[in-house]
From TrEMBL:
It comes from Amycolatopsis iheyensis. Pfam families: Pvc16_N (PF14065). Residues 4-179 form the Pvc16 N-terminal domain. The lineage of its organism: Bacteria, Bacillati, Actinomycetota, Actinomycetes, Pseudonocardiales. Residues 186-219 are annotated as: Disordered. This is DUF4255 domain-containing protein.
């Protein structure tokens, strides 16, 4: 993601700066005074990255369906991040440095977004706009002690914030719906009665005598 944003910024600035101007993305340091002598250089130093919470909570997963309407793949929601750059200009005189900063300001505010023609790789595949904000109140400005940390004297600069979406992982396949469900139970028929169980015994009747009654002649 970071390298692709750097490539896009370099491509954008190349359209607005002279071909002789060098664009660097490493941290400026004391050695730059000698290294940039006799040349014109624009430094674009990434000093902070944070999630763009103003965009709100990412939406849910995106479903991809087959012709029958069944979900076959799901893609995680993308997150957007603020990439905060400190932009500096280096030349043999202050007038040239201000001219370079003005050219950068003009290039970044012309449309407010990085044109699609400058986007490459996953940054282009996401389809999400890559926005540019520069020198605006409330932006993530570089801390005042950054010059001491870098070991250089304070100089004119621009605070540039690029908001880009982090490319999500490849869509995750979803298991196909089952064709049949086996509960693991044996299908049984109606219960069988045990032999001789559940039947009433018919009374035994003999000639002249009922079952359960004594035999004999009346006196």
């Amino acid at each position: 993601m970071f390298d692709e944003v750097d490539i896009a910024l370099r491509s954008l600035l190349r359209e607005s700066l002279s071909r002789d101007v060098v664009v660097r993305f490493d941290a400026p340091g004391e050695r730059w005074t000698d290294e940039c002598s006799g040349t014109e250089t624009v430094g674009v130093f990434l000093h902070r990255v944070r999630e763009d919470l103003a965009a709100g909570t990412p939406a849910g997963w995106t479903d991809e369906r087959d012709p029958d309407g069944r979900v076959v793949r799901r893609t995680r929601p993308s997150r957007r991040y603020e990439l905060c750059y400190l932009v500096t200009a280096w030349a043999d005189d202050i007038e040239r440095e201000h001219l370079l900063l003005g050219a950068v300001l003009s290039a970044c505010t012309r449309t407010g977004v990085l044109p699609a023609t400058h986007l490459t790789g996953a940054l282009a595949r996401t389809g999400a706009p890559v926005t540019l904000s520069v020198a605006q109140p409330g932006l993530s400005a570089a801390p005042v002690d950054i010059w001491t940390a870098l070991g250089v004297a304070a100089r004119g600069c621009l605070d540039l914030v690029v908001v880009a979406a982090l490319a999500t992982a490849e869509p995750e396949p979803v298991a196909s719906a089952p064709v049949a469900v086996d509960l693991g139970s044996e299908v049984l028929g109606p219960p069988q009665r045990e032999a001789g169980r559940g039947r009433r015994r018919a009374p035994l009747i003999t000639e002249g005598v009922r079952d359960g009654q004594g035999s004999g002649e009346a006196g």
